[in-house]
Amino acid sequence: MIIDTHCHLESEQFREDIDDVISRADEKGIKKLISLGSDIASSVANIEISKKYSNVYPACGIHPECCMGTDVNDLKRIKELILDNPCVKAVGEIGLDLHYAEASLEKQIEVLIPQMDFAEAIGLPWVIHCRDAEEYLVEIIKSRNYLTRSATGVIHCFNASQKAADLYMDCGFYVSLGGYITYPSSRNLLPVIKTLRLDRIMVETDAPYLPPQSKRGKRNESSYIDETVSFLADLLEMSPEEIEDITTENAIRCFKL
Ligand SMILES: [Zn+2]
């Protein structure tokens, strides 16, 4: 069994054929999918999808790229959505992005921290998007003492330096690896992946984005995750079955599935 810990099934790109996408994943052994919101509308849409497909688990949150106009009412709405729907398994995706996001770092932090606090208070993990902002993220985690309590989370689309990887492992984070690890341009990331703790790694697609190398240029979907699993197995000198077992066990622990 494989768990796709990060996809966006509510995306416009799946509107026509979501049934087929979910059954193709099922046939390939991808038995659970976590579908992430980026704002209120997509969070609501993922909750609706999860009501129709019992193997889909929603997460709700406001992404740094969507946080420009976010105010206290939006944050309140996200909290209500989560409290009203026990099927929600994580708060995400949330985070910091100094590469693409328009909002200032200050604004991003203002939206991030209440969501992190809320997740901790109700015992849900964070799903964190972090781009070019590792030091700020780690500073927040450490200065707010989240990890001396029971907070935890996953760094999705992990693509960071050795220094950041060490910090994440020290912070007790999980990291999730997607199709991008199969790209020739990810060569420098591979030695870093080899140093990650085996009880902290998960796999994801980020579908419809970031398809693995053999599918580049196409829409990504969960059934393509096997390419990432095989690639990771070769890299870590393990069998694909071992990678499946390890990453599935980690995802079940992290998201309490
Ligand atoms: Zn995503």
By CATH, the architecture is named Alpha-Beta Barrel
Q: Compute the number of strand runs.
A: 8
Terminal Cα separation, in Å?
13 Å
- Any idea of the CATH class? Alpha Beta
Order of secondary-structure elements: EHEHEHEHEHEHEHEHH
Rg result? 17 Å
CATH topology: TIM Barrel
In terms of DSSP E residues, the strand content is 15-25%
**Average residue-wise pLDDT:** 96
Largest sheet: 8 strands, parallel
Listed once per kind, the bound small molecules are: zinc ion
List the total number of helices: 9
Please provide a brief summary of the model.
The protein has 257 residues and is of the alpha/beta class. Helix content is 41%, strand content 16%. The protein has helices at residues 18-27, 40-52, 72-84, 105-122, 134-143, 162-170, 190-194, 225-235, 240-255, and strands spanning 2-7, 30-36, 56-60, 90-97, 126-131, 153-155, 174-177, 201-203.
Descriptive labels:
257 residues; 8 strands; alpha/beta; binds zinc ion; 41% helix; TIM Barrel
Topology at a glance:
Blueprint: E1 2-7, H1 18-27, E2 30-36, H2 40-52, E3 56-60, H3 72-84, E4 90-97, H4 105-122, E5 126-131, H5 134-143, E6 153-155, H6 162-170, E7 174-177, H7 190-194, E8 201-203, H8 225-235, H9 240-255
Parallel strand pairs: 1-2, 2-3, 3-4, 4-5, 5-6, 6-7, 7-8
Helix pairs in contact: 8-9
